[in-house]
Amino acid sequence: ETGVTQSPTHLIKTRGQQVTLRCSSQSGHNTVSWYQQALGQGPQFIFQYYREEENGRGNFPPRFSGLQFPNYSSELNVNALELDDSALYLCASRVGLAIRDEQYFGPGTRLTVT
Amino acid sequence: DQQVKQNSPSLSVQEGRISILNCDYTNSMFDYFLWYKKYPAEGPTFLISISSIKDKNEDGRFTVFLNKSAKHLSLHIVPSQPGDSAVYFCAASYTGANSKLTFGKGITLSVRP
Fold first, then answer.
1. Distance (Å) from the alpha carbon of B69 to chain A's nearest alpha carbon
2. Given pLDDT bands bounded at 50, 70 and 90, which one contains residue B2?
3. CA torsion, points B72, A47, A64, A112, in degrees to nearest 10?
4. Taking a C-beta distance cutoff of 8 angstroms, is the pair B37, B31 a contact?
5. Would you call A99 and B45 a contact, using CB atoms and an 8 Å cutoff?
6. What is the DSSP letter of A9?
7. Are residues B10 and B107 in contact, defined by beta-carbon separation less than 8 angstroms?
8. pLDDT tens for each residue of A14-28
9. How far is A44 from chain B (nearest CA, A)?
10. Do B49 and A103 touch (CB under 8 A)?
11. Which of A100, B26, B35, B81: disulfide with B47, CB 3.0–4.6 Å?
């Protein structure tokens, strides 16, 4: 067990709707990263937050946004859902910004967009 | 444009034998490489890593080899155990600001008892 939890486990939404996914990191983990894993693919980096500020973003449109809170929880928000947004969404936390700090992944939220 | 490639989607080996999982990369800026293991309904867990200044790193039954000139790395598991059956992801990054992990598609390893 990594100490990183995500909610909900599964979610079904309709195209055009908005969704909020949640992640709770280990205490003291100041960095949280979010990944999208489509079926048959590896995790793809969405963005990263460090001490409540965005600190790096992958090739995802602005309708993907996030928040990180002082209590080591974070959110991923996706607006105007598209069918291709159907995927497993993973969050990962680590202590600092160094990529060599071990990242701990949550079990993910499976999002289905119909 | 896939910068980290795991070209074999699956591998099946007999218990006790060696498992060799391969990974290729195209971005010469990558200087740090990792392997993650993922069981169903769980997030990926870190297995082993290697810096570009080394060509081998060993941790128990797991050894990662890096060939920088070929832009190739491999994970060796010896001896393989049924509990090693999982999806294995190769990931790469570079040292620097806003660095991120770039993952391959993964390889499903099945270890037969």
1. 22
2. confident
3. 50
4. no
5. no
6. S
7. yes
8. 999 999 999 999 889
9. 7
10. no
11. B35
